[in-house]
Amino acid sequence: MSLNLQSDVSLKAFNSFGVDVRARLFAEAHDDEDAREALSLAAQRNVPLLVIGGGSNLLLTRDVEALVLRMASRGIRILSEDGEQVLVEAEAGEPWHPFVQWSLAQGLNGLENLSLIPGTVGAAPMQNIGAYGVEIKDLFAGLTALDRQTGELRDFTTEECAFAYRDSLFKREVGRWLILRVRFRLSRLASLRLDYGPVRQRLVEMGIEVPTATDVSQAICAIRSEKLPNPVELGNAGSFFKNPVVPFGLAERIRAEHADLVSYPAGDGLSKLAAGWLIERAGWKGFREGDAGVHRLQALVLVNYGQATGTQLLQLAQRIQADIRARFGVELEIEPNVL
Ligand code: EPU
For residue 274, which atom of ligand 1 is closest to its CA? Predict the structure, then answer.
């Protein structure tokens, strides 16, 4: 029994919004045994178990009457190599970006577009993290999770995870699965994705004609650093809303009034709209009330200037949702988990 169980712990350092709420109980899991022990302790004490990774996709609106378990398990390994294909496994508590850097340092390609995303390996499949034209489902090769109902381990294939845009089985079956480790199929050969947004242009500006995966990673780090606030300096949870998928007809009605609307075809007569564009056009970019605000460079990101509470941030989000609904007839869905 190695779990260090603490009572009444501030979660300020464990959520990237920097919201200061307290957890009734708190522990860190360094291995599978710790996770199992936390499961049974929560049951014994009759409190829910809340599992967190980097806390970078989380909005806490009040004290947490639960056992908060931070996944802190570490370890990265190459499981097998087959020609240029390499199967890699990482423990849930590995921080995401250092894992991406590790893979690039091994000469393994695939994760470069997902550079500088906050959070942990174990949290990445929850919302199928994605950026610059790549989602983790594209590199995913399986994961092992603990079934919180039966205490048994289960391996999931890509199909079983039911990945979709910022969505997965694990997000839908909240509280059922505790992700312990994740596997990725990476490649010794580079097959770079440069088409999304400003990636190619940035490489040109960097003077790189024939980019490597490491070059792409550096370009993406530069792009992200310019637009997205560093949570260490300014509390935030990345994009606060999903880009809404709407019927093509609605997108075209908005475009008839706003020729510069940013949208992408989403198949089946649907269009995906840039929520950042909608929010900026509605005048919210740079808005601040107290310590809750909308980032001045990226309207999709809500920020905590210091002492904002989760409720204040949520209320700001709800005002934005109501305004976007009234102006454009579009429903914005909140992206992080709100507790
Ligand atoms: N835009 C605006 N105003 C803004 C922000 C964006 O007009 O304030 C426009 C941009 O000009 C651009 C379009 O919206 O034409 C898209 O912007 P951007 O490329 O910055 O991407 P995004 O749609 O705002 C999504 C992801 C990000 C991811 C980037 C790059 C979601 C919810 N967000 O943002 O993911 O890094 O694309 O792939 O899908 C996250 O999920 O936390 C996240 C940061």
Answer: 14
The reply to whether 58 falls in a domain is yes
The distance between the two most distant Cα atoms of the chain, rounded to a whole number of Å, is 64
CATH number of the domain within which 66 lies: 3.30.43.10
Could you tell me the residue range of the domain that residue 262 belongs to? 235-338
Is-contact 183 91, C-beta < 8 A? Answer: no
| Average pLDDT score over the chain | 97
Catalytic residue IDs: 166, 239, 335
Expressed in angstroms and rounded, the spacing between residue 197 Cα and the centre of ligand 1 is: 9
Distances (CA, A) of 168 to 62, 128, 129, 158, 335: 26, 6, 10, 10, 13
| Portion of the chain with pLDDT greater than 70, in percent | 100
Nearest CA to ligand 1 atom 33: 239
Which pLDDT does position 1 carry in this prediction? 52
Atom of ligand 1 nearest to the CA of 132: 38
Q: Whose CA is nearest to atom 37 of ligand 1?
A: 131
Domain boundary residue among 227, 246, 281? 227
* Residue 57 within any structural domain of the chain: yes
Domain count, the chain: 3
Q: Is 262's C-beta closer than 6 angstroms to any atom of ligand 1?
A: yes
CA 18 to CA 258: how far, in whole Å?
36
